[in-house]
Structures
1.
Amino acid sequence: MPLDKIHCSACDSSAVEAMVAVETFTYKHTNFEVEEFNYSVCKECGTEFVTPKQGKLNDQKIRDQHRIMDGLLSGRAIRGIRKKLGLTQHAAAQVFGGGANAFSKYEKCEVIQSVAMDRLLRVADSVPGVYEALYLISLKLLVAPNIQYKQTVSLCDYGECEVSDAKILPGNIIPYGVFSKKKEKQLKTSNKNLIGYG
Ligand SMILES: [Zn+2]
């Protein structure tokens, strides 16, 4: 982390070095370690301190450990599920809810996901068909759990699209934000019935 313009909190020297160390914390009577706890050392007077930027990074790492210890998915695990489903952060928020910036915040450990969101992500990740159903619900196309559609949907011709069938959903809909603009245009041209969403 660049530390230019950082001055020692004790002697105001600018000879400050960024350091990392293993630091032990306690959460709910259990110790845990943050392997890369960020702090600064003044080379003039030896004072150790944490800058606001380092503090923010440390807080995110500590919060991530808290949620792992609470049995919740880590930021990295959430990002992994989202990527596996082929979703941008914005598209993931549209499908799973939680607000426009929810996934950015979950993944950066700025906000801890609710238990309900955590379970939803795990189910969507591991049970076939759940993600597809959630996706249709987010589009208001699936109105009841026993798969009733508000409108007739048909399957996209996957063969012509040359993309993974997991990424094109029933209803001839291109998930918003999943593909690049160029790819979306390509898909729309190669299959006139496709409808973009978003
Ligand atoms: Zn100093």
Note: Residues 52-69 form the longest helix (18 residues).
2.
Amino acid sequence: MSDLVITAPFTEDQVRILNKFQHSGFFHPFTCGDEACPRNSAVDDGILVATEKGWECKCGNYTQDWAHSFMVDEYSIDTAEETLNNIKNGNYQGGN
Ligand SMILES: [Zn+2]
């Protein structure tokens, strides 16, 4: 099965890595699923915050209890961040 997920409660380490993922630019971050969320006026545009109990939106009206397992793959996040920075700074060396 390719779409592996992890479910809350998350460990302290998973929380740290999930929040790093949310701001890494490595894929689109999870955002609030509440229709009434004041996303555009909220800090971070409704980007969900990971806690040990699961995801929460700062609007207080939305929680989510699962994440993709690749979202806690810190090595991939770190190298993706480095790759994206290299592209941005014109230092990308190519993949081969
Ligand atoms: Zn929200």
Note: The two ends are 29 Å apart (CA to CA).
